[in-house]
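Title: Comparing notes on inverse folding

I've been comparing how different people in this forum approach sequence design from structure. To keep things fair, I'm posting one structure and asking everyone to reply with a full sequence. Here's the target:
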């Protein structure tokens, strides 16, 4: 699965991942390989990324939108 986190200023993250947990406006949710297509709003919180080597990275966002389609995840985030 491929994840990109983009803010108005720069690309914050780009790479292959195993899983991601996002702070959804209606509650946090996770995305794994093969997830159904989705577009959702995000609130302020932590994006928890688990890469292929099981390394965990946390990125704080101030809100935004996520799109999942064909194992590609794009997060358009307000400045982090």
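Reply #1:
Here's my take.
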């Amino acid at each position: 699965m491929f994840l990109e986190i983009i803010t108005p200023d720069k690309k914050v993250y780009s790479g292959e991942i195993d899983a991601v947990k996002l702070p959804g406006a209606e509650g946090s949710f996770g995305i794994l390989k093969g997830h159904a297509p989705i577009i959702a709003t995000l609130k302020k919180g932590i994006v928890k990324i688990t890469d292929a080597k099981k390394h965990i990275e946390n990125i704080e966002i101030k809100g935004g939108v996520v799109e999942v389609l064909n194992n590609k995840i794009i997060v358009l985030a307000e400045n982090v």
